[in-house]
Amino acid sequence: MSRIRIILLTLIVLFGMAGNSLLARAALGGHLIGPLPFTAIRLASGAAILIVLMMVTKSRPRLHHLLMPMMLFVYALAFAYGYEQLGAATGTLFLFFAIQATMLAWEIRGGYRLSKLQWIGSGITLVGLWVLVGGITHLPKLLGIGLMIGAGVAWAGYSILGKNSMDDLATTTANFVYSGLAAIILLVIYTAIESWHHEVIHISLAGIYYSMLVGAITSALVYVLWYILMKELRGVTSAVIQMLVPVIVVISAAPLLGEQITTRLILAAATMLAGILLVTISKTNVTK
């Protein structure tokens, strides 16, 4: 793949992932829908659009690894519950920090050695996170932070497991079908329990719309492109380049969601971006 195509694909994926965070926060933070129905509709919508693409290409879903739909399910569920509590900018920074840390740890485990610049860049990224954490002192947010970190670890595992898949569309379709079924079953059980206690699950037409948009466009289609992109990038680069997503979200959260963008948040995003640049421009070192 040419460099121009890689750059264009990278931009599409990054803005798609940023759209995930912004749309999810708009739906969940605006109390348009609950986290569980959001997750179920998101995964089911993703499965539906991918099945249509499978029919067009006359191919079949193919499960690459049993853990992949499990990882996708855990990521999506923790992601939704996390965004119910955290703002888009803050939640995204924690989410993608966890992704970066997990993927870097996996690459090092596989024999990858960080260069001095990459160690420095990774350290600078951590400093950026520390700057952000310094502004979070309210105990209720700790649960949201933990959920976002868990979602990040699950997404990193999902990415790592699918990097060597032979058919990205078939693999992603299978993952969405199985994880979507799991989410729907969980939603049905939860709805039955709530009905027994005479409670009604909160859901609105706008919430359904947001969930479907996130599932079909910024999740399913973008994730297929993500697997294609990962095959063109070094493991460390694919891990760190995702840290551009929080920067996009920080810039977009104020005008689109009306979130307050503080000086601390801007400094954290800028510091993380500097760390990303150092890691991505460094040379690769692999031990045999």
TrEMBL record:
Bilayer topology annotation: Multi-pass membrane protein
Chief place where the protein resides: membrane
One protein family per Pfam: EamA
Residue ranges crossing the lipid bilayer per the database entry: 36-56, 63-81, 87-105, 117-136, 142-161, 173-193, 208-229, 236-257, 263-281
GO cellular component entries: plasma membrane
Compartments it resides in: Cell membrane
Keyword Transmembrane carried by entry: yes
Origin superkingdom: Bacteria
Domain EamA: 143-280
Keywords of the record: Cell membrane, Membrane, Transmembrane, Transmembrane helix
The keyword Membrane is annotated on this UniProt entry: yes
Name the record gives this protein: EamA domain-containing protein
Organism encoding this protein: Acidithiobacillus ferrivorans
